[in-house]
Amino acid sequence: MFVSDLSTEQWVGNRNESELIENPTWNQIEAAIRELDGKSQTLVTLGADDETYMSIGGGEAGKYIVTVTFDNLNFHVLIEPSKPDETQKLVVGGQEGIYPAKMCVDLLRCLLAARTFTETGKLEPLLAWEEDKSLVVV
């Protein structure tokens, strides 16, 4: 497998009690993603090295934000291009944010993207991705 670690967070009040699992199985990764609830569990990170990782956040009402970086500078975000030009509130990494609706994808797309990244270290070609300019550090 391409992914070498799985990081999950558990918010208790305003404190993050994160957990790191080395060499996770796909079942552990899928379970962590399915546990995202947009309240106390709002972020899962699949790491390959210090610069290559996938972050999956949210979970409330079946909406997820999926981002990938291969160099910690350029970020790709999974999108659903057919969604209207609206915004939605979602809690990611313990903080509420306002995201374009097209960035809030369903569980099936999220799991497909995670499975492909976990096994191959690549973006799933059957899904739509775009470079996320809002995450670029200047």
Task: Describe the SSE topology.
Blueprint: E1 5-8, E2 11-12, E3 15-16, E4 19-22, H1 26-34, E5 43-47, E6 53-58, E7 64-69, E8 75-79, E9 87-92, E10 95-100, H2 107-120, E11 128-131
Antiparallel strand pairs: 1-4, 1-5, 2-3, 5-6, 6-7, 7-8, 8-11, 9-10
Structural write-up:
With 138 residues, the chain is an alpha+beta fold. The protein has one domain (5-129). It has two helices and eleven strands, in the order ββββαββββββαβ. Strands 4-1-5-6-7-8-11 form a seven-stranded antiparallel beta sheet, covered by helices on one side. Helix 1 runs antiparallel to helix 2. It is globular.
Oligomer: single chain
- Calculate Rg over CA atoms: 14 Å
Order of helices and strands: EEEEHEEEEEEHE
Uncertain spans:
none
Proportion of beta-strand residues? 35-45%
Distance between the termini: 33 Å
Look at the structure and give the mean pLDDT. 92
Number of domains: 1
Biggest beta sheet attributes: 7 strands, antiparallel
Helix count, DSSP H or I runs of 4 or more residues: 2
The class by helix and strand makeup works out as alpha+beta
| CA-based shape | globular
Question: What's the gist of this structure?
Answer:
The protein is α+β, with helices and mostly antiparallel strands and 138 residues long. It has helices spanning 26-34, 107-120, and strands spanning 5-8, 11-12, 15-16, 19-22, 43-47, 53-58, 64-69, 75-79, 87-92, 95-100, 128-131.
Keywords:
138 residues, alpha+beta, seven-stranded antiparallel beta sheet, two-stranded antiparallel ribbon, globular
